[in-house]
């Protein structure tokens, strides 16, 4: 088995840990914020996990082993949620939220921009760049509208 498969599993576990942090912290804010965060992460995770599964297959894992390893990385999410809940201050959830939500959202923005901006800069066709920027703005608009409802 190639080392890239194991590195991918480690990265996926850390990613799932931050997802668990975000979900638990957002439920500490309110049920609405918690459900919206959960839905956003689920929509993100479906294609992400399919891609990770393909990486594991390419790294030499058989289908069953790759599926078991992918499932084991989900424990990172459970640990992240437990950590967020256990990190609550006796003074209330406010102090916990003061660092967890900015940490996780900043990480998500960093990953998104690191993946999108280089592709935009290398794109030769201006129409494709415009489409990507419009879709990025559409996503931001949807998030704002969901936050206002």
TrEMBL record:
Q: Which domain of life is it from?
A: Eukaryota
| Catalyses which reaction(s) | Zn(2+)(in) = Zn(2+)(out)
Q: Where in the cell is it found?
A: Membrane
The UniProt keywords, alphabetically, are: Ion transport, Membrane, Transmembrane, Transmembrane helix, Transport, Zinc, Zinc transport
Identify its membrane topology class.
Multi-pass membrane protein
Q: Transmembrane residues, as ranges?
A: 69-87, 99-117, 129-148
GO CC field: membrane
Q: Name one GO biological process term.
A: intracellular zinc ion homeostasis
Query: Main site of residence?
Result: membrane
One MF term in GO for this entry?
zinc ion transmembrane transporter activity
State the PANTHER family in the record: ZINC TRANSPORTER SLC39A7 HISTIDINE-RICH MEMBRANE PROTEIN KE4, ZINC TRANSPORTER ZIP13
Family in the record: Belongs to the ZIP transporter (TC 2.A.5) family.
Protein name, entry field: Zinc transporter ZIP13
Q: Which organism is it from?
A: Malurus elegans (Red-winged fairywren)
Gene behind this protein = Slc39a13
């Amino acid at each position: 088995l190639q080392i890239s498969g194991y590195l991918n599993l480690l990265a996926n576990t850390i990613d799932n840990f931050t997802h668990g942090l975000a979900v638990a912290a957002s439920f500490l804010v309110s049920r609405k914020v918690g459900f919206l965060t959960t839905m956003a992460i689920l929509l993100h995770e479906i294609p992400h996990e399919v891609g990770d599964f393909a990486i594991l297959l390419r790294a030499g894992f058989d289908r069953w082993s790759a599926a078991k390893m992918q499932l084991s990385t989900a424990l990172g999410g459970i640990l992240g949620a437990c950590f967020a809940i256990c990190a609550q201050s006796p003074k209330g959830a406010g102090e916990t939220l003061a660092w967890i939500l900015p940490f996780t959202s900043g990480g998500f923005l960093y990953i998104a921009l690191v993946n999108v901006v280089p592709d935009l800069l290398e794109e030769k066709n201006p129409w494709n760049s415009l489409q990507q920027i419009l879709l990025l703005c559409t996503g931001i608009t949807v998030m704002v509208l969901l936050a206002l409802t």
